[in-house]
Design a protein that fits this description.
The complex is a heterodimer. Chain A is an alpha+beta fold. Chain A contains 18 helices and 18 strands. Chain B is an alpha+beta fold. The longest helix of chain B has 14 residues, at 9-22. Classes of the chains: A alpha+beta, B alpha+beta.
C-alpha cells in the first residue's frame, strides 16, 4: 500500500510542532514510542504506521487549537475515534498528527420529548442506546462493533448495521453536528430540528472519512423500541433459493427489521463456535427478524414462512422466546470471530450488489476463490445487498497474504461489474482506495476532490485515504473550456 | 434571451459549456412549477430540462428507480402505485401554493427543491432517498456520484449535496431513488379539542411509545380541514402498516392518551384527504395574498414559535407538522417581515420564506442567513461546482 511520501521538513520540525501542540492541548500530547504504539493501526491490522505525534484534545477549543497549529505549520492530520474502522481510515502518517477524539466522551444532553441525544464524538454507539434504554428508547444504527466504536467514527464512516434496511444508516439518524475545519473554525450544522438549512453539508460530512473536518459534537435522533421482535431461521438447499426468498419478501411489501444470510461455510463456522442451533446441511441460511406490535409480528412471520416454503425452504424455525431469538443472532454476530477460529487470519470485504445478482456473484466468487487458492465464507446483509465475504488466509505466508489482497480486489471489482459498489458500510479508507477508479470515472473523482478543496484547500486532512491520486486544488480548479459559440445546431432553442 | 432545451445529456453538456465559456448565467427549469420558491433568478438565458424525461429503469424488488429529471412526478407516482410502492418522504405538491395547477411538477424539481411531506418525521427527507445522481456541473462536466444500490458509502455523498441545492451546483441528468412498499392500511387518530402544551405533550408521548407513527400534526381551531370537527383544535396521529398492526397500535394509543381529548378515527380516504391538505399547505394555497413561511424547529418548540408570530401579527394563520418540528405560517398580507418571523425562532432552527411576491423575495433572505464561517464554506462549495456563477445565480442567496 503506497502512502504519501513523508515530508522530511515536517519530521525535522517535530520538536517545534510538539512544543506548539503542548501549548494548544496542555496534557494531551503523546510523543514517546511506547505510548504511541497502540495507535499505530486501526481494525485493519494488516497495515501499521507510527504517527509523528498523538494529540488527545479534551474540548472543542483544544481540537480547534491543535488544528490551527497543524494548518499553520502545514502538518497533516489523521482524525481517529475508537480505532475500530475496518478500512484503514485512521492509519497514521509518519509525518502526521494523529488526532484522537476519545477523551471527548461525555453525553451532553438527553431530550426525550424532542427524541434527541447530544453527545461528544468519543461516546460509544452502544452507550447512547444504554443511556436511553430506561425510557424504552434506543439509537437505531447498530454496527457489529457497537460496544466499542465511537459515534464520531460512525459519522465519519456513515456506519450501518443489521437493522439499517428498515431504520437507516448513520446519515438517516443524524440530526446535527459541530465540527472544526482545518482552519480551526467551529461550525454547527443542524440541531434538534429536522433538515439543516442551506446545502446539505451534514450529508456530505457524514461518511467523509475524516477528510473534510473533525466532528466534535453529535446530535442523533432516538427511537422507541419496537414492542416485540421475533426472528425466523430459514434454510435452503441452494443459495439461489435463499436469494429469491429475500427478493420475494421485499416484493410482498415486507421490510423486515433485519434480513441476514450466511453461506454453508459461514454458518458452520458460527455453529461450531456458539452452537446457535443452525442446520448444518443447508446451502444458505436466512435470519429474518420482524419487529413491531405482537399481532403484526405474528402476521408477518406467517407470511415470510409461506414465501420461504414457496421458494423451497428445507428448514424453518421461528424463535419461541427472547432467548431463542438472541441465540439465532448470536451465531450471526459471532460469524467473524468464528471464521477467525478456522483460519489464522481473515479479511472482511464489504461490497454492495443489486440483490438479484447474488447467486451469480456467489458462483463467480467461488471460482475466484479457486483461482487464488483461498477459502471464502460469506455473510450477507441480504435485505440491502451488502456482502461481507470473509477471505481466509495466513498472514505469515507472504504469498497467501498477497493472494488474499488480490482476491479481495477481484471480488470488489466483481461487485462494481454487476452494478454494485465497493463499500456498503466500512468505508474506502486505504483498503479500497486504489479501486475507486473501477467505480468512478476521472471526472466523478475530480468533482469529489473539488468538494474536499472547499473544506481543506491544502489537503492536510487525512491525505492518502479514499482518493487514489492526490491532486492539488489549483490543478483541480483549472478550467479548459471548449466551445463557447452559439448556435448549437442540434439543441432545440426558442 | 435564449431558451435552450437539450434532449440528450451531450446536448446539455454542450449548452453548459457555452454558458461557461461565454459567462452567460442560466436559469435552470423543469416545468417551472417551483419558480416561486427561492429568490428570483437573474439570468439572461433559460436552460429547460423538461425534455430530459422518462423512467430509465424501475426494479421494485430492488426498491430502486432510476429516472430522468424532467419526468413528471405524477407519472412516476402512478408507476409506483401500480406496484404498490411509493416515495416514502411523501412528496408535497406545492404548485398550487405558487399559483400553478396541481400535479405540474417534475422529479428533478422535487429533488432540487428538497421538499418532503408529513411522513418525513418517520421516513426521512428527500435526501435520505436519493441514492445516486448524474449532473452537469457549472464547469460543463458530467459527473456521477452515489450508486444504484440502497446501501453505499463509496466516496462523498454528492447526491445529498445536490438535493435541495435548487440547481445551483449542477443540472441533474439522472436521479436514482430509493422506493419503499406502500402501506396496506392508513388511519388517523384524531384528538379533538386539544391545544397548547397539552397538544405538544400528546404528540411527544405518542412518539415516545412503540406506536410507530407515520406522521403527527396539530391544527388550530381557525381553519376548515376536511373530516375534522369545525372550530376545534386537533392533534392528528397517522398510523400505517398491515391491518392487524394498525389496529393494535390504535388500541395502544387510545389507552395511552385516554382522557386527554375526545377521539375519533379517520379511515383510509378521509385520512388521505386530510393529510394531502396538510402536505400541500392547501389552506395557504387558497389564500394567495398571504406571505408564507415554513420554520424548522425542535419539535417541542413549535407551538411557542407559532404563538409568538400570531401574537405579533394578528390575522396570521398556521399549523404544526412533524410533531411540532415544522411550523407553517401564513402572514396577514404579502409583506414577509423576515426580522419578526426569524426573531420567533427559539435560538436554533431556521425559517424559509416559501411564498411572497418576486419583489419581496428579491430583497428578503429567503433562506436562513448563515453564520459567517458557514456562509464562507457554503460559498467555497458553490465555487467548486460553479466557478463562473452560471447556475441559477441568486436563487439561494444574493450574489451566490
Amino acid at each position: 500500500m503506497r502512502m504519501p511520501v513523508p515530508d522530511e521538513r515536517i519530521i525535522r520540525e517535530r520538536g517545534t510542532l510538539i512544543a506548539r501542540l503542548q501549548a494548544a492541548v496542555p496534557g494531551g500530547v503523546v510523543v514517546d514510542e511506547t505510548s504511541m504504539r497502540p495507535f499505530e493501526t486501526d481494525a485493519l491490522t494488516a497495515y501499521r504506521q507510527m504517527p509523528l505525534v498523538v494529540v488527545l484534545p479534551a474540548s472543542t477549543d483544544e481540537v480547534a487549537a491543535a488544528l490551527r497549529v497543524c494548518r499553520a505549520m502545514g502538518v497533516k492530520v489523521v482524525p481517529r475515534g475508537a480505532g475500530t474502522g475496518l478500512s484503514g481510515g485512521a492509519l497514521p502518517l509518519a509525518d502526521g498528527v494523529l488526532l484522537v477524539l476519545s477523551r471527548l466522551n461525555r453525553i451532553l444532553e438527553i431530550d426525550y420529548d424532542n427524541r434527541a441525544v447530544r453527545v461528544q464524538p468519543g461516546v460509544t454507539n452502544l452507550a447512547i442506546s444504554q443511556a436511553v434504554a430506561g425510557r424504552g428508547f434506543y439509537y437505531a444504527p447498530d454496527p457489529s462493533s457497537q460496544i466499542a466504536c465511537s459515534i464520531g467514527g460512525n459519522v465519519a464512516e456513515n456506519s450501518g448495521g443489521v437493522h439499517c434496511l428498515k431504520y437507516g444508516v448513520t446519515a438517516n439518524n443524524l440530526l446535527g453536528v459541530e465540527f472544526v475545519t482545518i482552519d480551526g473554525e467551529v461550525i454547527r450544522l443542524g440541531g434538534k430540528h429536522l433538515d439543516p438549512e442551506g446545502y446539505d453539508l451534514l450529508g456530505v460530512l457524514t461518511g467523509s472519512e475524516g477528510l473534510l473536518g473533525v466532528v466534535t459534537e453529535v446530535t442523533v435522533r432516538i427511537l422507541q423500541k419496537p414492542e416485540t421482535a421475533r426472528a425466523v431461521l430459514l434454510g435452503f438447499p441452494s443459495v439461489e433459493a435463499g436469494g429469491a426468498t429475500v427478493a420475494a419478501v421485499i416484493a410482498a411489501g415486507i421490510i423486515p427489521g433485519g434480513m441476514e444470510m450466511m453461506d454453508n461455510a459461514a454458518l458452520n463456522a458460527a455453529e461450531d463456535f456458539v452452537q446457535a442451533g443452525y442446520p448444518r446441511d443447508v446451502a444458505s441460511l436466512l435470519i429474518v427478524e420482524l419487529d413491531g406490535p405482537a399481532a403484526e409480528v405474528d402476521h408477518l412471520i406467517t407470511r415470510v414462512e409461506a414465501i420461504a416454503r414457496g421458494h423451497g425452504a428445507s428448514y424453518c424455525r421461528v424463535s419461541a422466546s427472547e432467548e431463542e431469538r438472541l441465540a439465532f443472532w448470536a451465531g450471526r454476530k459471532a460469524a467473524f470471530p468464528a471464521v477467525g477460529r478456522i483460519s489464522p487470519d481473515y479479511v472482511c470485504m464489504d461490497g454492495t450488489i443489486p440483490r438479484r445478482t447474488l447467486p451469480a456473484v456467489l458462483t463467480r466468487m467461488e471460482a475466484l476463490g479457486r483461482e487464488y487458492r483461498l477459502r471464502v465464507a460469506n455473510v450477507f446483509h441480504a435485505g440491502d445487498g451488502n456482502l461481507h465475504p470473509l477471505i481466509l488466509f495466513d498472514a505469515n505466508d507472504a504469498d497467501e497474504f498477497d493472494r488474499a489482497e488480490k482476491l479481495g480486489a477481484a471480488i470488489l471489482r466483481l461487485c462494481v461489474e454487476v452494478g454494485g459498489v465497493l463499500t456498503g458500510e466500512h468505508g474506502v479508507g486505504i483498503e479500497k482506495r486504489d479501486l475507486m477508479t473501477d467505480q468512478f470515472g476521472a471526472e466523478d473523482l475530480a468533482q469529489q476532490m473539488r468538494l474536499k478543496c472547499a473544506f481543506d484547500p491544502d489537503g492536510l486532512l487525512n491525505p492518502g485515504k479514499v482518493f487514489p491520486t492526490l491532486h492539488r486544488c489549483a490543478e483541480l480548479g483549472r478550467m479548459v473550456v471548449q466551445g463557447g459559440r452559439l448556435p448549437f445546431p442540434d439543441i432545440p432553442r426558442f | 434571451m435564449t431558451t435552450l432545451a437539450p434532449e440528450t445529456e451531450s446536448q446539455l453538456i454542450e449548452a453548459m459549456r457555452w454558458a461557461v465559456a461565454a459567462e452567460q448565467p442560466l436559469e435552470l427549469l423543469g416545468r417551472g412549477s417551483k419558480r416561486g420558491f427561492g429568490r428570483p433568478v437573474q439570468a439572461a438565458h433559460t436552460l429547460d430540462l423538461s425534455r430530459l424525461s422518462g423512467i430509465v429503469s424501475y426494479e421494485p424488488e430492488e426498491l430502486l428507480l432510476v429516472v430522468k429529471p424532467g419526468t413528471m412526478l405524477a407519472d412516476l407516482s402512478a408507476a409506483l402505485a401500480e406496484r404498490r410502492q411509493m416515495l416514502a418522504f411523501d412528496p408535497p405538491d406545492l404548485s398550487p401554493l405558487w399559483g400553478g395547477a396541481a400535479g405540474a411538477g417534475t422529479v428533478g424539481g422535487l429533488v432540487s427543491a428538497g421538499l418532503s411531506g408529513p411522513r418525513r418525521l418517520k421516513a426521512g427527507a428527500v435526501r435520505d432517498h436519493v441514492l445516486g445522481i448524474s449532473a452537469v456541473s457549472g464547469r460543463g462536466d458530467l459527473f456521477r456520484a452515489g450508486g444504484k444500490v440502497v446501501k453505499n458509502v463509496t466516496g462523498y455523498d454528492l447526491p445529498k449535496l445536490l438535493t435541495g441545492a435548487l440547481g445551483t451546483l449542477g443540472a441533474l441528468t439522472e436521479i436514482v431513488l430509493k422506493v419503499l412498499p406502500a402501506p396496506e392500511v392508513t388511519r388517523t387518530l384524531v384528538l379533538a379539542g386539544i391545544d397548547g402544551a397539552a397538544a405538544h405533550q400528546a404528540m411527544a408521548d405518542a412518539l415516545g411509545s412503540p406506536a410507530e407513527l407515520a406522521a403527527a400534526a396539530w391544527v388550530p381551531a381557525g381553519l376548515p380541514w376536511p373530516g375534522l370537527p369545525p372550530r376545534t383544535p386537533c392533534v392528528l396521529l397517522r398510523l400505517e402498516g398491515v391491518a392487524v398492526s394498525v389496529e393494535a397500535r390504535l388500541g395502544h394509543l387510545g389507552r395511552l392518551l385516554e382522557g386527554r381529548a375526545a377521539t375519533a378515527v379517520l379511515e383510509a380516504e378521509d385520512s388521505a384527504r386530510l393529510w394531502a391538505e396538510l402536505r400541500d399547505a392547501a389552506p395557504l394555497a387558497r389564500q394567495p395574498e398571504r406571505a408564507v413561511w415554513k420554520l424548522s424547529v425542535p419539535p417541542m418548540q413549535g407551538m411557542a414559535v407559532l404563538d409568538r408570530i400570531r401574537t405579533a401579527l394578528p390575522g396570521s394563520i398556521g399549523w404544526l407538522d412533524w410533531a411540532g418540528g415544522l411550523v407553517w405560517v401564513g402572514l396577514p398580507d404579502g409583506d414577509a417581515r423576515a426580522g419578526l418571523v426569524r426573531g420567533a425562532l427559539p435560538g436554533e432552527g431556521h425559517a424559509t420564506l416559501m411564498r411572497a411576491p418576486d419583489g419581496v423575495r428579491a430583497t428578503t433572505p429567503v433562506f436562513q442567513p448563515q453564520p459567517e464561517p458557514l456562509a464562507r464554506l457554503t460559498a467555497r462549495v458553490k465555487a467548486q461546482f460553479d466557478p463562473k456563477g452560471v447556475l441559477n445565480p441568486g436563487r439561494m442567496a444574493a450574489g451566490g
